Automatic annotation (TrEMBL):
Catalytic activity entry: 3-hydroxy-L-kynurenine + H2O = 3-hydroxyanthranilate + L-alanine + H(+); L-kynurenine + H2O = anthranilate + L-alanine + H(+)
Pfam families according to UniProt: KYNU_C
Annotated positions binding pyridoxal 5'-phosphate: 85-86, 113-116, 155, 184, 187, 209, 239, 265
Its EC number(s): 3.7.1.3
Gene Ontology MF terms in the entry: kynureninase activity; pyridoxal phosphate binding
Protein name as catalogued: Kynureninase
Gene that this sequence comes from: kynU
Cofactors (names): pyridoxal 5'-phosphate
Record family assignment: Belongs to the kynureninase family.
SUPFAM superfamilies: PLP-dependent transferases (SSF53383)
Job of this protein: Catalyzes the cleavage of L-kynurenine (L-Kyn) and L-3-hydroxykynurenine (L-3OHKyn) into anthranilic acid (AA) and 3-hydroxyanthranilic acid (3-OHAA), respectively.
């Protein structure tokens, strides 16, 4: 049974702040600073180059991959860490396209994160030969999967609306039509139970700085289904994905299975940070996280609709169709969010008018939700957002 009082106590949460933005960047695990200091002093400081073996730095991308595998329902040995999510999207998509050489269409949806679409655009342009990206509305993906589609590139939970695709159903449909699937789990991993193996996904990728709390710049992960692992051709043929990197061959031979999805030197310090967050997940049951996340989201929606009539729900009302975030639309949403942040409630804003709130049961309680909505309602009632410093739009994260 997950002890959410214990999990909350494992994070540093600034005094007076209610943090509803863990869907963008998770908070700092309290164990991280000491762990990093020890790593720097004892591993890097004392071991220097020998740390690659002595401290297992070289094996870390696979070892951490196995810990992520448990959280996304992947078979052990089929997830590896490294690079940024955008890079992993590119790698997965390129490998999937190569596995369907007679087809030319990448299918995605307009709710996908722009970087995923940009990566696909760049790749199809590079490939030429009539390769193209087709983008449809999120609700129209199922009917758009036809015999021309080589690969579907979908983010399970939409970063703006929080809408959740049915991974198992869409994967089954794609397979029925002969297409492969690449799932982006950026807004799912660590937020809800994911079962890539059960859903029969072909490739999956995700980041670790959001719900997995690995810190800014934390490495991404990639999953390749066992049936493709030794067939996938790496488009980014880096030396650490080579079968024998330390033979320094002139020609590239892909490593066995998921090893070939490695590219270059892994971010060791960031991975060590991520390990401190995963230590917390070792004591967490994702089914219970989901149950509590639904409870918090439902509470938030109910209270906002009761006390903030100016806001319109943008996320699906049915919890089964949502991830762990809730979005509301509002005229002056940007200024309202700035006023809210000034009062210590941290959410974020996505153009043109979307206010996003993430609910992570690992450190958010029902009392936090109640307090956050109380502050939001007070801001709206008193039009406290209507001030030049809140209205002036700056580049936002
Ligand atoms: C769904 C999704 N895909 C891709 C990215 C890009 O990730 P990165 O900046 O790590 O490349 C993000 C977030 O930035 C995201 O939310
Ligand atoms: N990755 C980010 C970053 O480096 C800076 C600021 C924000 C981010 C994000 O993750 C944005 C996020 N993907 C989103 O859902 O909007």
């Amino acid at each position: 049974m997950t002890d959410f009082t214990w999990t909350r106590a494992q994070f540093h949460l600034p005094m007076g702040m209610i943090y509803l933005d863990g869907n963008s960047l998770g908070p700092l695990p309290k164990a991280a600073p000491a762990r990093i200091e020890a790593m720097l002093r004892h591993e890097w400081g004392e071991q220097l180059i020998t740390g690659w073996n002595a401290s297992g730095w070289m094996a870390q991308p696979r070892a951490i991959g196995d810990r992520i595998a448990r959280l996304i329902g992947a078979e052990p040995g089929h997830v590896v860490m490294g690079d940024t999510l955008s890079i992993k999207v590119y790698q997965a998509l390129a490998a999937a396209l190569k596995l369907r050489p007679d087809r030319r269409v990448v299918l995605s949806d307009s709710g996908n994160f722009p970087s995923d679409l940009y990566m696909a655009q760049g790749l199809v342009k590079l490939l030429g030969q009539d390769y193209r990206l087709r983008v449809v509305k999120p609700t129209e993906v199922a009917e758009a999967i036809d015999e021309n589609v080589a690969v579907t590139l979908l983010t399970e939970v939409d970063y703006r609306t929080g809408r959740r695709h049915d991974m198992a159903a869409l994967t089954a449909l794609a397979h029925e039509k002969g297409a492969l699937t690449v799932w982006d789990l950026a807004h799912s991993a660590g937020a809800l139970p994911v079962d890539v193996s059960g859903a029969d996904a072909d490739f999956a990728v995700g980041c670790t700085y959001k719900y997995l709390n690995g810190g800014p710049g934390a490495p991404a992960f990639i999953y390749v289904a066992p049936r493709h692992a030794d067939l996938a051709e790496p488009a980014l043929a880096g030396w650490l994905g080579h079968a024998k990197p330390f033979d320094f061959d002139r020609d590239y031979t892909p490593g066995a299975g998921i090893e070939r999805m490695r590219v270059g030197t892994p971010p060791v310090v960031q991975m060590t940070l991520l390990e401190t967050a995963l230590d917390i997940f070792d004591r967490v049951d994702m089914a219970e996280v989901r149950k509590q996340s639904v409870r918090l989201c439902e509470q938030f929606i109910g209270l906002v609709e009761e006390s903030c009539p100016q806001l319109r729900l943008f996320s699906p009302r049915d919890p089964a169709q949502r991830g762990s975030q809730v979005s509301f639309r509002a005229e002056n949403g940007y200024a309202i969010m700035q006023a809210l942040i000034a009062e210590g409630v941290i959410g974020d804003f996505r153009a043109p008018d979307v206010m996003r709130f993430g609910f992570c049961p690992l450190y958010i309680r029902e009392t936090d939700v109640e307090e956050a909505v109380g502050i939001l309602a007070r801001i709206l009632r008193g039009a406290l957002w209507d001030r030049p410093e809140f209205l002036r739009r700056k580049a936002v994260t």
